[in-house]
Specification:
This protein has about 170 residues and is an alpha+beta fold. β6 and β7 form a beta hairpin. The strands form two sheets. Strands 1, 2, 3, 4, 5 and 8 form a six-stranded antiparallel beta sheet that branches. The protein has a two-stranded antiparallel sheet with strand order 6-7. About 25% of the residues lie in helices and about 25% in strands. The chain is built from four helices and eight strands; from the N terminus they run βαβββαβββααβ. The radius of gyration is 15 Å and the shape is globular. The mean pLDDT is about 90. It has one domain: Alpha-Beta Plaits.
Length: about 170
Amino acid sequence: MPLVYLLTGGNIGNRLLKLQQARQLVGLHIGSILQTSAVYETAPWGNTRQPPFLNQVLEVETALPPQEVLAQIHRIEKKLGRIRREKWGQRTIDIDILLYDLEVVETEKLTIPHPFLPLRRFALTPLAEVAAQVLHPQLHLTIEQLLRQCPDALPVSVYHPRAADDLPAG
């Protein structure tokens, strides 16, 4: 079965709880989660006037084709309170398809590999943790190589919960 690499992230509300809920729903509706990266706290990219994000990569074995993975992602985001207001704006949860095996998909609604992947340290760092030697199907470089040459200098660090609003519920 194909492997899909998903990046989960959010920067408003209980960020850690939303990542946990997204992970559970991905496991229920997309496929078996084989690996997860650590949770990283990352500076916002694009629109930098917003709170920092928490991000995590999930390696998922799926029977779903790429378009159905995207449809399930949109359902999960909606269920977790995602409202699309502005590009690169604040959000409770965001789930991006970074890679789907070695497939290249270019449609009006879906581009795989994610077109900004080589430019985003916040995506490459957790992806390299679980898939360092995986090849980018268009650039023919490993994720580890892409991370080493990434021009993005925004901070990315392993997250250690310290704020009450990011502690797990219960």
